[in-house]
Design brief:
about 300 residues; alpha/beta; four-stranded mixed beta sheet; binds adenosine-5'-triphosphate; nucleotide-binding; kinase; lactose metabolism
């Protein structure tokens, strides 16, 4: 059995390392890095690193989208994207003087027939997977209820859904009766959602807001401070040791991979929370976004503490 990852707005992530970035003139780049990007694809890679069987899906065109499919294939990740007539996007990160300037294309508009085609593909793929990770924003053209529709279909087949999105896409899901099994907001996303500042002091009461009724796992990632979670009616604090960090971008996606992996392996709540944090930490220790080296997995795992609050 495998895990399905959903990335509706994937990208070719381009990085341009420059010694200095000059505005209003030509900047030449010798070393260009290009990878398949998008939060769900980071989740896919980390799942693969964990040894899971992964199937990646979303929307892709036949140029950059085809490149993404090839890139995933070269990493041993199967995919089944729905073809679109719009153009799959590029996202550019200019790395200069220790800073990062990003130019992120919005991405293509999805047509109604394409959205319907995706739903048909999704239904067909569900039979082959036991859990689903849905990540990132909704592309233009899709209804706000699109994620809720996917969750409703998955719930009908009793598949676990881990949802990692923010803003209006998350709000639309939370206002809908079809609940994902897991959400993974950070404090900033919770603050946006609840319209009041959420801190470690008021997190317990914040997670009891009626908006979250029916969601079994709420895992709030706290960067270098670890995580706080509500699972059923219990609260947990995950404490992590200080580590040397190389690049923490994508650590939240690695955490999602750890959560969906742990739950699909029927791990205990404590071990799932620990494993998810270890994935986030291992991602932060790698230069490549959405990648972990499992060599240090157990050593880190043994240093984590999960306390019931
Ligand atoms: P992103 O959007 O960049 O993926 P996020 O806000 O969703 O990030 P974070 O809370 O930053 O997610 O990170 C997820 C997990 O990764 C944390 O709960 C923690 O376990 C680990 N992590 C992230 N940053 C660090 C760090 N600087 N040191 C140690 N662990 C980290």
């Amino acid at each position: 059995m495998s895990i399905l990852t959903v990335t509706l707005n994937p990208a070719i992530d381009i990085s341009y390392p420059l010694e200095a970035f000059h505005l209003n003139t030509v900047n030449r780049v010798a070393q260009v890095g290009k990878t398949a990007g998008g939060k769900g694809l980071n989740v896919s890679r980390v799942l693969k690193d964990l040894g899971a069987d992964v199937l990646a899906t979303g929307f892709a065109d036949d140029i950059l989208g085809a490149e993404i499919v090839e890139n995933l294939k070269s990493e041993g990740i199967d995919s089944r994207f729905t073809k679109i007539s719009g153009k799959t996007r590029n996202c550019i990160a200019i790395l200069h003087e220790g800073q990062q300037t990003e130019i992120l294309e919005k991405g293509p508009r999805i047509l109604r027939e394409e959205a319907e085609g995706f739903i048909d593909n999704f239904k067909a793929m569900l039979a082959k997977v036991e859990a689903i990770a849905i990540s990132g924003s909704l592309p233009d053209g899709l209804q706000e209820t699109f994620y809720s529709d996917l969750i409703a279909i998955a719930n009908k087949q009793e598949k676990t859904v881990v949802l990692d999105c923010s803003g209006s896409a998350l709000e639309a899901v939370l206002k809908n009766p079809h609940n994902p099994s897991v959400i993974k907001p950070n404090l900033e996303e919770l603050t946006d959602l609840l319209g009041k500042e959420v801190t470690l002091e008021n997190i317990k009461e914040s997670l009891q807001d009626r908006l979250f009724d029916g969601i079994e796992w709420i895992v709030v990632s706290l960067g270098k401070e670890g995580a706080f979670a509500k699972v059923s009616d219990e609260f947990y604090r995950v404490k992590i040791p200080k580590i040397d960090v190389v690049n923490p971008v994508g650590s939240g996606d690695a955490t999602v991979a750890g959560l969906v992996y742990g739950i699909s392996q029927n791990e205990t709540v404590e071990n799932t929370l620990k494993g998810a944090n270890v994935c986030g930490m291992l991602n932060a220790q790698e230069a490549k976004t959405g990648h972990i080296n499992r060599t240090n997995y157990q050593a880190l795992f043994d240093q984590l503490k999960v306390e019931k609050i």
